[in-house]
Amino acid sequence: MAFSPITHIRHFDIAVPDFDKQVEFYRNHWGLTVQHDDGDVVYFAAEGSPEQYVTRVRRSTDKRLDLVAFGAADRESVDTLAQDLGAAGVKIVSEPDALQTLGGGYGFRFFDLEGRTIEVSTEVEVRKHRKIEEREAIPVRLSHVVLNSNQPEAMRSWYEKHLGFRLSDTLNHPHAGDLFYFMRCSTQHHSMAIARGPHASLQHASFELRGLDEYMRGSGRIIRAGYRKIWGPGRHAAGDNTFTYFIDPNGNTMEMTTELEMIDEDSWHPHIYDVQEPETSDQWGTGGDMDEFITKEMFNDSDNDHLFVAPPV
Predict the structure, then answer these.
(1) Which CATH number applies to 6-124?
(2) Residue ranges of the VOC domain (predicted)?
(3) H-helix or E-strand containing 6?
(4) For residue range 43-67, what is the model confidence (pLDDT) as tens digits?
(5) What is the C-alpha separation between 1 and 61, in angstroms, rounded?
(6) Helices of type H across 136-226
(7) What CATH number labels 141-299?
(8) Handedness of CA 95, 96, 98, 100 (dihedral sign)
């Protein structure tokens, strides 16, 4: 696909068994704002983002990634994408129509190559948002989502072919091959990435803070609250962004970041970074080496039982 109908990432939605603790984590510690709460589903906004919500938590006996949602420019883009996906044999979950979730809009859902539910929408009501002030250590917006896959090469090709994502950079091991594909739908270095793992799952979700000071203050707040930090603070080579990774109450990995690289589409050439070089994972050398323990934490629980099964909301 020469042109991507996708403009940006909107939100990622999860279902969790320990619902109350997840809600407390996002609301009282991570710095998100409850936009709507119906008792079994809570929508969380980022104060600096016009998106109605950047994540949604659903009460469930099962843990799963419910869906990942992306924006499109207009109805024509949504309709054309739905037609093209259907013609290519992609399983459509719901045809383009008025959305019944918070903020409304017009969109549709479908399954990706591995059976995750993906939503593409337009005309979602813009949320009243504000400028995040200096030293205000709360998320400005959702930065990106990373998906684990045991067939990352095929996943990369699928997202390039069907959704128009472009490859920004690759993490490679000389013996194990490609481990990580950073994918973009705009001038932001990546809005999603695909990581090599043993199964389909959410690898991590990342939230952008205002700047370095706010990022460090936010990281420190989560550490002081007693949540487990598995990696960071540091700065990656690919994307040139900072990172601190934490484990949330349901075992998902959540990242605080800032200063993700913006790229020039006309001049950018993807890099291949050798993960054996310490600077690839952390240019600063402050976060510690990426090791087997961290990798296994980010494998997360398998979503295999929930693939090709759309969430109820």
Answers:
(1) 3.10.180.10
(2) 8-123, 141-259
(3) strand 6-16
(4) 999 999 999 999 999 999 999 999 9
(5) 39
(6) 152-163, 212-224
(7) 3.10.180.10
(8) positive
